[in-house]
Write a structure and sequence with these properties.
By secondary structure, this protein is of the alpha+beta class. The protein has 3 domains: about 110 residues, Acyl-CoA dehydrogenase/oxidase, N-terminal domain (Butyryl-Coa Dehydrogenase, subunit A, domain 1, Orthogonal Bundle), CATH 1.10.540; about 120 residues, Butyryl-CoA Dehydrogenase, subunit A, domain 2 (Beta Barrel), CATH 2.40.110; about 150 residues, Butyryl-CoA Dehydrogenase, subunit A, domain 3. It has 10 helices and 10 strands. The strands form 3 sheets. Strands 1-4-5-8 form a 4-stranded mixed β-sheet. A 4-stranded antiparallel β-sheet has the order 2-3-7-6, covered by helices on one side. The longest helix is centred in the middle third of the chain and has 37 residues. The chain is globular, with a radius of gyration of 21 Å. This is Acyl-CoA dehydrogenase. Pfam families: Acyl-CoA_dh_1 (PF00441), Acyl-CoA_dh_M (PF02770), Acyl-CoA_dh_N (PF02771). GO terms for molecular function: acyl-CoA dehydrogenase activity; flavin adenine dinucleotide binding.
Length: about 400
């Protein structure tokens, strides 16, 4: 297991951290209150090549590793989780399915704009009754002639309604298949739906607890017709394809959470040294000092967890277990550090202009998105071979 960064990796991390401090952090409160994704910042991230980091140069990418993408996500999440998740989802849920499963024609049409950051895409999996239980997907796609006719709805879809969102890849039931015991099960496939398709409606954005700058919408599809060639990957392989997408996404999500935990630590440490009560810094209070020490320990543990998962991913080794451990450990570290940092700041920590207040609101979703903590525990127990397959039905 390699824990040290190479010189190239360190330069990337430093460059993105510098950009985060100079450009993202000063604007974070303004855009958070406006609940608007700052497209000028997204454009700068595109110019830096961040959306193309893990893709080969032949398709317009930077030819770097998934690990390096995670370094960038962590550096951004340290100051603004909304910007960090825009990159994480833009790459993992927007570009990666096209790169991994798209035809040559689909890749030629979409990849140049996606890897350059000129366009974004979403991934429509979650529904009112389906998410982790993908077998409960109610959205249907019927092949009528040379067109898919799609009906259904999706919820909580990131990057689905930005000014540069080009399409959403949706999961839909395209038929039935015979299961291992001879029973009929839904056949899930993934289909590209351009945002300007008639009948495809991006509903008003959510009023969220946090991630106010991140673009998140429910989607409605009523008799949406797209060409049969918009099928992404093999028909009936949608479930297997999105499992890979989710596993990879959990690693980057863990890096985002680690950035949040690091940001809370830095803010708490600065304030503990600056804030003076009765003539001494509050950091000289052992209770405060110990709280910050625990925050540092959580960051260290979280970073090692996602590094381990990302290195295995890049090496082509199995990483499902490590991804779930990292996602759980890092999400909890972010939430715990946000809570402790807010407590250290006292009344100032309750003011929305304070970075730790934003992290406090934002961090809860890190224990929910990309699979809740409970789902991660089920995956971990299943990977350990102790019967958790009974708790996670496989369609």
């Amino acid at each position: 297991m390699q824990y040290d960064l190479s010189d190239e990796e360190q330069r990337l991390s430093d460059d993105v951290a510098d950009f985060a401090d100079r450009v993202v952090a000063p604007a974070a409160y303004e855009y958070d209150t406006q609940r608007r994704l700052p497209m000028e910042i997204i454009a700068q991230m595109g110019d830096m090549g961040l959306f193309g980091l893990p893709f080969p140069k032949e398709v317009g990418g930077q030819g770097k590793s998934y690990f390096q993408l995670c370094l960038a996500v962590e550096a951004l999440g340290r100051v603004d989780q909304s910007i960090g998740v825009t990159l994480e989802a833009g790459v993992g849920l927007g570009v990666m399915p096209i790169y991994r499963h798209g035809t040559a024609e689909q890749q030629a049409e979409y990849l140049p704009d996606l890897v350059s950051g000129r366009a974004l895409a979403g991934f429509g999996l979650t529904e009112a009754g389906a998410g982790s239980d993908a077998g409960a997907t109610a959205t249907t796609a019927d092949l009528v002639g040379d067109q898919w006719v799609i009906n259904g709805s999706k919820q909580f879809i990131t990057n689905s309604g930005t000014p540069i969102t080009r399409f959403v890849t949706i999961t839909a039931v395209t038929g039935q298949r015979v299961g291992a015991r001879g029973e009929l099960k839904p056949e899930l496939s993934t289909i590209i739906v351009p945002n300007d398709t008639p009948g495809f409606t991006v509903e008003p954005s959510y009023d969220k607890v946090g991630w106010h700058t991140s673009d998140t919408h429910p989607l409605t599809l009523r008799d949406v017709r797209v060409p049969a060639s918009n099928l992404l990957g093999e028909r009936g392989r949608g479930y297997a394809n999105f499992l890979r997408t989710l596993n990879e996404g959990r690693v980057a999500f863990a890096a985002l959470a680690t950035g949040a935990a690091q940001g809370c630590l830095e803010e708490a440490l600065r304030y503990a040294n600056e804030r003076r009560v009765f003539g001494v810094s509050i950091g000289s209070n052992q209770h405060i000092a110990f709280k910050i020490a625990r925050m540092q320990a959580r960051v260290h543990q979280a970073r090692l967890a996602w590094h381990d998962a990302a290195r295995k991913l890049d090496a082509g080794k199995p990483f499902t277990l490590e991804a779930s451990i990292a996602k759980m450990v890092c999400g909890e570290a972010a939430m715990d550090n946000a809570r402790d940092a807010t407590q250290i700041f006292g009344g100032y920590g309750f003011m929305n202009e304070n970075a730790v207040a934003r992290h406090y609101r934002d961090s809860k979703i890190l224990e929910i998105g990309e699979g809740t903590t409970e789902v991660q525990l089920m995956i971990i127990t299943r990977e350990l071979g102790i019967g958790a397959e009974q708790l996670v039905p496989t369609p």
